[in-house]
Amino acid sequence: MFAMFIIVPIFIVLVFVFVLLLMFSPKLKGKLMSKQIKATRYMMDESKDDIESISSNMADATKDGIETTTRAIRKGLTENGGIYCKYCGSKIDKDSIFCKKCGKEQ
């Protein structure tokens, strides 16, 4: 119990002094920041191969979907047969005001 009355106040004072030093000492703040930057750089170097592998796999997985979507957009832009209803998705004439399937105004 007695140690608690000595150790806790000393710890509080040390934390307070450290915070004050961080606020008013750019040199100390710079040293702490440089250690954080070094740690981040180390983590990035260690995980670089994993990140490259993940991004390569993601690109391969989405490539087919992007190509399919691009072909569908190109076909929709070049097709002269009409447009699609923004509510139900059915094909309607370009000059239609209402959808023939759902009846909503375009």
Instruction: Write down the Rg.
Output: 32 Å
Overall mean pLDDT: 84
| Domain tally | 1
> How many strand segments?
2
Strand sequence of the main sheet, in spatial order?
Answer: 1-2
Order of helices and strands: HHEE
Q: SS-based structural class?
A: mainly alpha
Low-confidence stretches: none
Percentage of residues in strands? under 5%
**Count of individual helical segments:** 2
The shape is: elongated
End-to-end CA span: 78 Å
Task: Report on the architecture of this protein.
The protein is mainly α and 106 residues long. The chain has one domain. 72% of the residues lie in helices and 4% in strands. The protein has 2 helices and 2 strands, in the order ααββ. The protein has helices spanning 2-24, 26-78; strands spanning 83-84, 91-92. The chain has a two-stranded antiparallel ribbon with strand order 1-2. β1 and β2 form a beta hairpin. The protein is elongated, with a radius of gyration of 32 Å. The relative contact order is 0.05. The mean pLDDT is 84.
Give the topology.
Layout: H1 2-24, H2 26-78, E1 83-84, E2 91-92
Antiparallel strand pairs: 1-2
Summarize the structure in short.
This protein has 106 residues and is mainly alpha-helical. It has one domain. 72% of the residues lie in helices and 4% in strands.
Q: What structural keywords apply?
A:
single chain; 106 residues; mainly alpha; two-stranded antiparallel sheet; 72% helix; elongated
